[in-house]
Amino acid sequence: MADNKEDKSITRYFAESLYPNIQKLQKNAGNILKRSNIEDIHDLRVFSRRIRTILDVFSDFLPDKKRKSWEKDIRTITKSFGAVRDLDVQIDLINKVYESTEDSKIRSGLRRIRLRLEQKRQQKQANTKKTTQMILNSESIDEMNAWVETELEDKENEMFFSPELYRLGYKQIQTRLDEFLLYEIFIFDPARVEELHQMRISAKQLRYALEVFSTLYEKKTYFALDITRQAQEYLGSIHDSDVWIDFLPAFMKKETNRINNFYGYKQPYYRIKPGIEFLIKNRKKDRDRSYKAFLKDWKEWKEKETWLDLRKVIFMSSLENHNQPPKEKSSGIPKKTPPVQPDNQIPK
């Protein structure tokens, strides 16, 4: 643990950051069991990633054994729903593309792709319910809830922003911003699929850190949070298209072999081929659109010195005098918690 592990300002801020995300995680787990809505799984993964970010940011302020246990269980939740979420997104896209065309030749191939995706999705349904129930019965989540409630009920633990908390915010955001900008040299080459994917992950980590500390900086970093979210959306759209572009040729080959083995000849394959080829062109076109839009906005963000301005905000804030605690003491469960983005505004 860090030397300043007893800093009550940091501990309090840690608890108040964690509290709403645990509540949202459990709520979405309950929604998954009660209804069929692909956004519930998406939201659940978002809140699990936010919790992981918070645990990482404040990792020095928990016993190592407890921190590792909590991080491991939350990471399991995120990963368990990853493949299911990807399939839901792909099926949703197929439905949209299908409705956008009246060409029966194209629709035939789209129906075949949708059939195979739905078969995979059905195979994972039982495990989805099992994992969801695991969340509702999770010992780690119960422990986190108990720890948060204890911290927030401590009326002597005044809520104020100490110099150490500002230094922590500066370090965490600065580190994630550096990691994000490390990939800038690759963005001008559209063939850098893996680097663009890694940049998307870094954008997500920067975004979550900015969300964690948005209350600390009194909305002064909102401009950077909004732009980071836009960057994540562009890079997410590019990545989704790359997944399709990689998947569909392999799907064509596999489906050709499946048809040949079943019928003894390949002729039926040509009924679905136009739809598969159409989707490949569709995804390449969409990727090109997203990529060009991303570069255009990136140039504007650079011209406006977005990232330099963010560094200035967090640096200057860390130099100010923050030793004055508030006049009123806190009274348990927080009245004001770090903002959680509305579910319908959470990007992929």
Textual characterization of the structure:
The protein folds into two domains: 1-156, CHAD domain (Alpha solenoid); 161-319. It has 348 residues and is mainly α. Helix 4 runs antiparallel to helix 5 (104-136). The chain starts with 7 loop residues before the first helix and ends in a 29-residue tail after the last helix. Residues 325-348 have low confidence and may be disordered. The chain is flat and about 75 Å long. The chain is built from eleven helices and no strands. It has helices spanning 8-34, 38-57, 64-80, 82-99, 104-136, 139-153, 163-181, 193-212, 222-263, 273-303, 306-319.
Notable traits:
348 residues; 2 domains; 0% strand; mainly alpha; CHAD domain; flat; disordered C terminus; 11 helices; 74% helix
